[in-house]
Amino acid sequence: MNEIAPRPNNLDAFWMPYTANRAYKSTPRLLARAEGMHYYTNDGQEVIDGTAGLWCVNAGHGRREITEAIQKQAAVMDFAPTFQMGHPIAFQAAAKVAEMTPDGLDHVFFTNSGSESADTALKIALAYQRARGEAQRVRLIGRERGYHGVGFGGMSVGGIGPNRKQFGALLPYVDHLPHTHAPEHNAFTRGQPAWGAHLADALDGLVALHGDTIAAVIVEPLAGSTGVLVPPQGYLQRLRELCDKHGILLIFDEVITGFGRIGAPFGAERLGVTPDMITMAKGLTNAAVPMGAVAVHDKIYSAIVDGAPAGIELFHGYTYSGHPLASAAAIASVDLHRAEDLPGRARAMEGYFEDAAHSLKGLPNVIDIRNMGLVAGIELQGRAGKPTDRATRIFHRCFDAGVLIRTTGDIIALSPPLIVEKPHVDRIFGTLADAIRAEAA
Question: Record keywords: Transferase included (predicted)?
Fold first, then answer.
């Protein structure tokens, strides 16, 4: 009788994403359950969640309302296709999302992740330009240090080097705006920095270079994964003006900033700029079931759908677009955000959170602090010849002391659930301060 030889340990089979697999599996840190503001390890240690999971558990962990909605839907119908078919809960979920989005962005295309949302928005932009008789508009503009997921479209318009360098040339007809990170002008700014609106004028230069071939510009209103880059005052307004001037669509990637993170349902509202499309995921379902979406302006939907000949208008979609369980989770999550006014709670806590973040100024190797809403980035001076080492060691110290933070390069990013209270903020930043001091050398 043949027997399967056991693996050296039961961590081998899972090839972990965005992880130093060898280092992690040699000293694993396992999260076993979660509730409210906390994770719990498999040996029972309580860990404050300073990152809302991965920017996504905005309402806190284990919310009964969402869990029960998923369970109920699973018992009624586990799956139904949305290709030439439909089920009521997907339409209900889309309507709920459309009620939250800015005026005019009334049509919702469901995906399964932020990556899929980015690629979907880019394809819709190309289809729109073709539908309105501008088929020469095939070029997509992203931004340096931008992050739009890991699909080939999102990677191409993204601008984080390590995410791109292993995978070759990616998509053609892509260019990038300069990033807005300028610590020489804006270090230790609270909220939006005063310097940098003119950086949007680089779009004029790209139009001069590429002519009328640009279909869309995609940016994060507040760039998260690259280390919390807050938009300069007037920057997004200028970008909106230039896109209108040149017939270019403006897409906001709100996978992080959507659903209350910076004190409004979407960053577009807080920042006073309405794009032509908004991509979202994460907080859409409170991360209970994977789901993403693209909110699309009426003019785009009308041009592609109403102006098309009979038959399928957009040859794009996913098997799980509008999945019943995800739709149930989205409805419950949106209802929870409204019932508890989670964006309002974030706005109310923002000042205390900001003061706590900037209290780290003056600690060893802290060279910049940036914040908006319930997001903060603490940039560290890296160790010579050892990039990321200092931040990684601080991450480990914080975890061992019962606080989960996130690092990206030598930047610490914090984004707690929107239910965070002052004692949690004190614990997060107090623990982080101790860890920064401990890694001073």
Answer: yes
Query: What's the pTM value of the predicted model, to 2 decimals?
Result: 0.97
pLDDT value of position 383: 97
Q: Are 45 and 21 in contact (CB under 8 A)?
A: no
Give dist(CA 171, CA 152) in Å, integer: 7
The domain locations on the chain are: 21-62+341-438, 66-339
Q: Is the pLDDT of residue 430 over 90?
A: yes
What does the pLDDT read at residue 1? 44
Q: Phi/psi at 266 (nearest 5 deg)?
A: -135, 155
Domain 66-339 fold: Aspartate Aminotransferase; domain 2 (3.40.640)
The CATH code of domain 21-62+341-438 reads: 3.90.1150.10
